[in-house]
Structure formats: C-alpha cells, structure tokens
C-alpha cells in the first residue's frame, strides 16, 4: 500500500533520534462511517502517522478502541459528538469523509443539501482548533465542498490555499485499474493523470500521457473513459441502496494522505492529482481544478500544467469546464448566503 519512497522515508526517519522525528497527528472526521472505519485502519498502519484522532457524531470511540489494538506505534483516540475541538487540537492533517453517500439514481450533486452544512461546520471547527492543518476533503460533491471549506476558512481569516485539498485519488486509482485491465498491464505501471473535478463529465483522464495507455483508441477508448467517469455508479448500483464506494475510497484516501504526509516531512518529488485552488483555468472562471500537484512542507508546493492533450481529451475538457464552474459557484454561494 505504501510506496517504496514512503518505506525509504520511514527507514530514514528511524535512523534519527526520536526527538528529530516528525510527530504527525492526523484527525478523521466521520470516522464511524463506511469510509471512515477502513480509512482509520489504513492510517493506523501508516508509519508516518504518530497519533490518530477519530471523530464522528456516532460511534468513533468504539472504532478507536478497535483500531488501537493494531500493533503499530501510533496512538489512537476516539471522540464523541461534543468533542470536536478536542479531536482537532494539534492535528497537522484532517481528513473529512463525513456526510451522506449516494443511493442508486443519485448524482453527487444530489448530496449537496445535506453535506454542504456538515462540511461547512466541520471546516469552521478546523479553522478554530487546527488552523494550520492540511484539510483533505472526501465528502461529496467534492467540486462544491472544497470551495465551501475554503470560503468558511476565509470568513474565519485562516485560509491558506496550499492546505485545502479535494481527494480525487479514487478516480486515479480506477483509471490505472480499468486501463490496466484492457491493456493487460499491471495497474502500477499504468498510472494515469486525471484532471478536472470529481463527478461524471468533470473527470478528465489523460491517457495520451501514459506510455501503457496512449495506444487505446476508438470504441475501447470511449468505453474506458466513460467507465472512469462513472465507475462510482457501478458500486452504488451493486450495493443496491447500501451506499457508495467505501473500501476502494478508504484505500485511495489513505494513499493520498500518505502523499501529503511525505510532502510535509520534506520528501521531494511527491506529485499526484488533487483538486485545489488553481490558476490553470482562472481565465475561464474556474477557481479550483485538479491537476498534478507537487506536495511539500506547506502543502501545495507547485501546480503542474496539464500538458499536451489529444483532440478527444480537449473535448472532454471542454465538457468539464462549464459544469465545474457551476459546481464551484454553488459551493461559494452556499457560504456567502449563510
Ligand atoms: P456513511 O454514511 O457510511 O458515513 C458517513 C459518516 O459521517 C457517518 O458515520 C456519520 O455519522 C458521519 N457524520 C455525519 N455528520 C457528521 C458530522 N457533522 N460530523 C462528523 N461526522 C458526521 O458514508 P460513506 O460511505 O462513508 O461516505 C461519506 C462521504 O464520502 C459521502 O459524502 C460520499 O459521497 C463521499 N465519497 C467520496 C468519494 C470521493 O472519491 N471523494 C468516494 C466515495 C464516497
């Protein structure tokens, strides 16, 4: 699960004295849920996490008691509904999978009414109790919840655009797996940059920039692009009303958190797609965009341009931009009208 670089960084950190080792507290808000539970377990096994703080309005102390028996060095503590600020105190990374998931027939935007206020209130708490933390937002619709977090932090006067991330890693994970399947390659050798946002037409996979994927064309290409954009629906349908992706999302969330932690620890060259405040399409009124981002000691270190696209990819991008703009504006309006 952890890259060779992560293991190397662990080995290196063990060579230092305990006092020079970076202590990193990670908080999970929504830790009792379908994503929150396996995500907490995976974070417990990440050597870069020294302390794990699990919060939910229901059930977090139980999850914490369970996960705390795993034989890794980190400490785990669970917090009840009225202990949010205590859960956040000292956290360097806050992961948010709190909120309702989709049922069959729903789009991510259908979740807006419920999740917008949950995410806003949690962001306000982070602004109060852990204003320097990197915030990793999993709760959907990500295209709107990221601007909601940013606007809430702005209101509190503690917004740092380098530290607010929408987690789009599941799209990257799916792209590698689905394209690996059709090209008969190992997904780890089929890493595909996915840009744009995190919902249907805003998900833009760039197959042309990956050696093992650029030969995919015609109907096979159209089908796999559609599968990457709507892969979440396969899971929602198969779960038949019991929710959306939880296990693959927990895997993707832990993978992204590990990248952020490696960046915070000063590791160089940690680059992955994530949905952040971005200059790339600001001229088109799109303030937030996912592209390859280099992570560093302060969060976002450098936003990479999307590079050369094929005509088909340009078309995908054209479809993405207006939808993304709408989703972002909806998130911003929610906070400004409150
Ligand atoms: P779930 O319903 O199983 O768990 C959500 C948890 O959030 C519950 O334990 C609930 O008690 C908790 N919660 C609700 N309000 C809260 C609050 N104010 N503070 C703290 N905790 C609170 O849902 P699941 O399946 O874990 O999904 C969570 C979110 O993640 C959904 O919005 C879903 O759409 C999203 N998601 C995002 C993906 C991505 O790629 N970014 C992929 C899959 C799901």
TrEMBL record:
PROSITE patterns: MDH (PS00068). Pfam families: Ldh_1_C, Ldh_1_N. Substrate binds at residues 102, 108, 140, 174. Keywords: NAD, Oxidoreductase, Tricarboxylic acid cycle. It catalyses: (S)-malate + NAD(+) = oxaloacetate + NADH + H(+). It comes from the Eukaryota. Residues 24-166 form the Lactate/malate dehydrogenase N-terminal domain. Its EC number is 1.1.1.37. The active site is at 198 (proton acceptor). One of its GO terms (biological process) is malate metabolic process. Belongs to the LDH/MDH superfamily. MDH type 1 family. PANTHER family: MALATE AND LACTATE DEHYDROGENASE, MALATE DEHYDROGENASE, MITOCHONDRIAL. Homodimer. This is Malate dehydrogenase. It comes from Coprinellus micaceus.
